[in-house]
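User: Predict the structure for this protein chain, please.
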Amino acid sequence: MWTVTDRGPNADAPSDTDEIFLKPDRTPQIVRIRLARGDGVEVVRRIPLRVPHGQTDPVTGRAC
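Assistant: Here is the predicted structure, written as structure tokens:
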């Protein structure tokens, strides 16, 4: 089974149209998981989602 992680915590900025990313270095990932016995979950594979090197992340404004 495949799933996507959250982009991390954020907070409201003074402007209603903006948000502050509390952990801008946190990278969302595509994750392959396997359900284990009971309530367990095993992570089988992680694929980080990143913008290409040399470009700026349009969400966080950080250069990559």
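The CA atoms of residues 54 and 64 lie 5 Å apart.
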